Amino acid sequence: MSGLPPVTAPALAETLDALPGRLRKKVDDAVTRAAAWPVSTADGQVTVTVDESTTVTLVVTGGVVRTGADARCSCLLAPNCLHRVAVLALAPVHDGLDDEPDAAPAEPPTPDAPPAGTAAVVTDEAGPDTGPSGGAPVVLTPKQRDAAEGLWRAGAAVLAAGTSGSGLVLRTALLRAVHEGRANGLHRAAAAGTRVAAGLQALREAQPQFRLAELTDDLREVLAVAHRLRAGELPAEQSADLLGVARRGYDPQAGLRLYGLCTVPVVAESGYAGTVTYVVDRDGRLWTVTDVAPGGADRAARSGDTAVALGEAGLSHRQLTRAGMIVSGGTASASGRLGAGRSVRAVRATGAAWTEPPLRALWEQPLDEQVSRAFDALAEPVGDRLAGSDLLFLSVRVRGAATGDAVLAETLDGAPVLLTVADDHPELAYRENLRLLGAAEGLELLVVGRPDPGRRATVEALSIGRAPGTGDGLRLPEAWGGHADLGYDRLHRSQLQSGQQVPAVAGRPPVTGDPALQLLRRHLERVVSGGRAVAALADGQQRRLRRARLDLGAYLLAELSSAARFRRRDPFGRLTGDDAEAFTRAWLAAAVYEQHATSALTHATWLPRG
Q1: pLDDT digit string (tens) for 259-309?
Q2: Side-chain half-sphere exposure of 190, counting CA atoms within 13 A
Q3: Measured distance CA(102)–CA(191) in Å, rounded
């Protein structure tokens, strides 16, 4: 069903709460049937035709269905009917913010940042005064503790049921908790909860972009942050990180001389898409210019050709990546995102090749220093990362194709590197370009990419350029400025000439992480998919972890299995109330261990051996 306006989480929850228990069991089937109901719009109202005698009318205020009363059904059971719930469940969820997210490529953007040009910081009156770092602990308000507890319980319910058992009732409970969290200043946890809800919806609709691994990471995030918050007292130096912010402040900037680096499409599970362009100033600092709004991969594919929202320079994002710009009166967030307020003045200027200053310095930084910086950045929330801090700038030689449209390469020092697809949406050019690169053995390239913290020496390739002194190995159109943005520019076989011949390696499997940790990761994902019942089956995996000398991982997995099997019963053997507290804590402990162990191992594979 298309054409439905956004609906607030409280409105969806209100209509679901009005249903009697016997109808709640049928709500997921009703949602499936509702997908075929026709939608029409007239006189500011949206009408959904259920059958010849039944219609659901949505009253829209400011483009949004804001309360349950705004959904009216003509059937005899209204307002306590399945029709209202089914229609609202299919509508996109309005997150309560009129702002676009803080854009960062290949990571789901958090809906917690203002549109470009916003220059004021909006503080949350319900939130605590975080104070300077190193001060007294920050004590959360009672409402904030309740909101954190609600997010924890909602996440625990999803984990216990698994994706297979998480229907509309659990997703609505999660959205209600997200709404309360955001209203009380718990923005980081609320953003993670929004991504979990979006992932559940994507799975239900069989959307091709659904990834169980991403849903697992998002569920770990919401549980980990909510667990820290519900303690009620936060160390001063961690409070800002754990609470997050609703809007990011934009401070005035002195005149900037910028040089385009690359442009990257963004597609987020939270329903936002667009593009982000990286630019570099004279001192080598990276900044970003973004265009992110509600949409999907088709919007990301188009947005590269939209005008840059900086002054009246008249440049599109794909043009800026090969040109330069002089900006005065500009604003920027602390993370390096440039704003586009009315005071901004910008004119087009000449750009610079990757092999020229100031861009050349990005590739001259030692690889071990780049890796340490990137892994430190990847451990931070997306919105808190400095622009470009999670990127690597590599000089590589192509060795051949690997399975999964990846490219085997090596640094000029001979260290192996796997170049992978940053986004596999068919609307974007990544996959086709990587297939062509895999056939150009010996080709030397400059690469901009983001390391995969879960795989050894693996980089999500974002852009490639001509390496210095390699002649015509990479024959790009002059208008491309010596580099190709792999998400947008479509390469042709004639543009890639092989260099020196190297042994064929086609078909070699990608480099992966530790096998024992991979087993643990797969088990954690199976729990997210199948729920609590799956968690009790892990005895063989515990032995594998012990043999790999990962004793702590084996212990945590044993605790998870034990907690999953233990269920409270009354004297008659009947199951009693179980809030899944022990089970959720055990899964979270194992998930956090796996995250840090895998990241540490992967980081170590990049370090020089000596």
Answers
A1: 999 999 998 766 678 999 999 999 999 999 999 887 888 999 999 999 998
A2: 24
A3: 11
Task: Let me know: does 553 contact 597? Beta carbons within 8 Å.
Answer: yes
CA dihedral sign of residues 217, 221, 222, 227 = positive
Cα-based distances in Å from 548 to 131, 460, 514, 543, 607: 45, 28, 9, 9, 21
283, with CB counted inside 10 A (0-12, 13-18, 19+), is exposed
Q: Which residues contact 391 (CB under 8 A, 6 or more apart)?
A: 278, 286, 374, 448, 449, 450, 462
Taking residues 244-255, what's their average pLDDT?
A: 75
- Averaged pLDDT, 436-443: 90
For residue 291, how many C-alpha atoms fall within 13 Å in the half-sphere facing its CB?
A: 22
pLDDT digits (tens, 9 = 90+) for 376-434: 898 887 777 899 999 999 999 999 888 778 999 998 888 889 999 999 889 999 999 99
Check residue 385 and report its DSSP letter.
S
Residues pairing with 592 in the sheet: none
d(CA 595, CA 525): 12
Q: Evaluate the omega torsion of the peptide bond into residue 358 and state whether it is cis, within 30 degrees of 0.
A: yes
Report which of 141, 146, 145 is spatially closest to residue 125, judged by C-alpha positions. Answer: 141
**93-94 and 7-8 as β-strands: parallel, antiparallel, unpaired?**
parallel
